[in-house]
Structure formats: C-alpha cells, structure tokens
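Handoff note, outgoing to incoming analyst
You'll be picking up this chain. Sequence as last confirmed:
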Amino acid sequence: MPRRKPEIGEFPEPQYYVDVTLSEDRLNGSGRLVGKVRERTVSIRNIIADIKRDQKCFLTEDTLFYAAQALGTAYFERLRRGFAVDVLGLGKIYHALDGTFVSKCDVPSKRPKIVPRFTPSKVVAAACRKLKCRNLYESDVSPKIYAVEDFPRGANGEVAARSLVKVSGRNIKIAGEGAGVFFVPKAGREAVAVPPEKIWKNFPQSLEFHIPNDVMPGTYDLEVRTRWSRSGRVKNEMCHAVAEIVVTEKRREAE
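Most recent structure output, in case you need it:
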C-alpha cells in the first residue's frame, strides 16, 4: 500500500515539561505565589536551522525562508481582507470586536475596535494539556548593582572623590519616599546621601551622579534605596542594593 502523506496539523508528541517562575501574588495579598511559564522566543531563522540540522531536508535554508515569507505575506493579506486564517494546523487567527455597540446608530469613531484573536487547534490544546512543570524558579526583581565606575572610567569599585560616577545594575531607578543613593562608611560613621540635584541620570539599569564633597576618601558601602516597581507603581516596601566601593583622593587617568 502507498504510504499516506501526513496532513498539516499532525504533530509528534511534545516535550512534557516546562520551567515556571514563581513570584509573590501582590494583587490579592494572600501570601501565595503565582507562576508564569518561562518562555523563549524563536525566530523563523532559528526554526529553519533546526529543521536542516535535525532532518534530511533537500530544500535549502534560503528556499525554506522564502516559503515561510510567502506564507506569512499570504496569511496577512487574507487577514487584512477579513478572512479567518488557519495557521499551519496550529490554530485559527480571526477578527473580533473589543467591546460592544451602544446602539445601531453609533458613529464610526465610537464603535468598538476590531482586534485579532487566536484559537489553538484541538491538537495543540491537547498537547498543552500534557505539559507539566519541571523546574520552579523564584522571581528575583530586587535591585542589584553590577558595577560602579567613575569618569574617566576607572576600575570597578574604585572611584575618585568628587567625581562623576556611573552605577550599572538592575531595577535601581530611584523612586518613592526615602529613596536615594547613600555612601555608608565602613568605619561606622553616618551615611552621606547624594542630593537629588546631583543625580543626573536615573534609569532602571543605570544611575549617574556626582559624589558629594562630604564623602572623604575611604571604603564605603554604596547603597541604593528605592521603592520603584517595573509596573510603574511605587512599592510600599523599601528595597536595597549594596556594593562595596573605595573612594580615592585622585582621579584615575583615562587609558
């Protein structure tokens, strides 16, 4: 008997495990954790390279890429004309109204917008039901300092007194009451705050400021205090990021 050609939508068994990142449920405040599947995005170029590596495909990568581009263009053209499109057996992209009509006499400017929707196929839905959590990771959104350098760039962790300093890190944007940048002496003396007017750049991944004149040469803990949240809201709790630095008397010469 002749061998039956596979239909689009006939997929092999999927991998059964995915990784999940856990974070605090701040919306309900119940103390429970919410999980999010850790997703990795692949491009069509990555997929085509995998096809060529894992299977004996007689088509070249350029030919496969051209075919993918042609399909994508044809899909978009059908969508633009109002069709619902079956995407390679994975599911259907279609149009829907985002809202309701107040009346049948609504003017065009007040009518609900048309938005795209996607419904997975039965095969994809069944495959997803077989997936299970493999590794659980704790979400770490606390601020962290990666490097502290002055201008001209010196060694990481060593800055000159009264110089302009750049701090690189994660989630270190200054925001909220009591937030700021502080030089905490190792000798136990009182911390020196960087005045807000001396902070020139304030971004989630970098800070730039001038060291106050009150900071004498010595060893310090550079402390960033912030209530900033990636959601754009100010958090109730204060978060801290600390890095040990040495303040020197002289400025390092540019190499």
